[in-house]
């Protein structure tokens, strides 16, 4: 049963990747549209297959697929332009909220949804304070991504929130240390935080 399900998710990912490649093209003008769409189709196909396999039987699987696909897009944009477009980040949260609302209405258990929303609001509030003190060291886009990560991880539990946020920060620190060590950048260089932060939820999922 799992094999057909994974195959279906792969096809969904391939189709989504073609559309994502077109949406990303303005951010990657140096790459031909055809190459961008093919690359995103392959990446999203693989990511979707992994999500479909890992979340088989989970009623919230669509939310996690939504997060995965948008994480790919946001990571590419951040790596290329050091930006995390607010509309994309908001859509990432909106998609998850919609699915979680449906799951909650079917199960009748509002606990996970309330916890996810509380985690999101708390992390966003702390992030705003951090942003004011850190200045250019922490972009507002990073704050919103932190909040989205907390939202998805909050659905799983408070432990997942701690793991997801902590893993993202630790991964970012490790990547920065490696880049500094090999001389790719120095301590004043800007490093795209989005990809590392967006990897956090998947560490939390793996450890849940």
Q: Which outline best applies? A: globular
- Structural class per helix/strand content? mainly alpha
Give the averaged pLDDT, no decimals.
89
**How many domains in all?**
1
**Largest sheet composition:** none
Distance between the termini: 24 Å
The helix count comes to: 8
The tally of strands reads: 0
Beta fraction:
under 5%
Helix percent reads over 70%
Order of secondary-structure elements: HHHHHHHH
Stretches where pLDDT is under 50 for at least 5 consecutive residues are: none
- Measured on Cα atoms, how large is the radius of gyration? 17 Å
Keywords: Membrane, Transmembrane, Transmembrane helix
Protein name: Prepilin peptidase
Organism: Allosaccharopolyspora coralli
Blueprint (SSEs and pairs):
Blueprint: H1 2-24, H2 33-54, H3 61-81, H4 86-107, H5 111-134, H6 140-156, H7 158-181, H8 194-207
Helix pairs in contact: 1-2, 1-3, 2-3, 3-4, 3-8, 4-6, 5-6, 6-7, 6-8, 7-8
